Amino acid sequence: xxxxxxxxxxxxxxxxxxHARNFVVDVLGLWxxxxxIDDAMLIVSELSTNAVLxxxxxxxxxxxxxxxxxxxxxxxxxxxEPLPATAEQLATxxxxxxxxxxxxxxxxxxxxxxxxxxxxxxSATV
Length: 126
Prior knowledge:
Helix content is 32%, strand content 30%. It is of the alpha+beta class. It has a single domain (13-123), classed as Histidine kinase-like ATPase, C-terminal domain (Heat Shock Protein 90). Helix 1 (16-30) runs antiparallel to helix 2 and helix 2 (37-53) packs antiparallel against helix 3.
């Protein structure tokens, strides 16, 4: 793995999203991209929480940089497609993928042999 692609595995417990956020902050700091930290923390927080709550599995966070773009992926063991929900006004959940769509250049998912990869791309122009 090159310095342009860094990943870390996390346990599937409730403390894992906080550890994933810290990992993303460290990598973006290493890459000199503090401009992306806030949006990247939101993205990894939502995706890693989904992996724990809905995927009920351990997960891997992978960051890749390509020019000014950074791609954040969360890979888990669940084969369930992530679908944006329509949250009621007072609901305490159901807005995560909509938030990711709002702050990212693009997002999506790929079903893989042992689960899925949900990703979002950030750029300095977002």
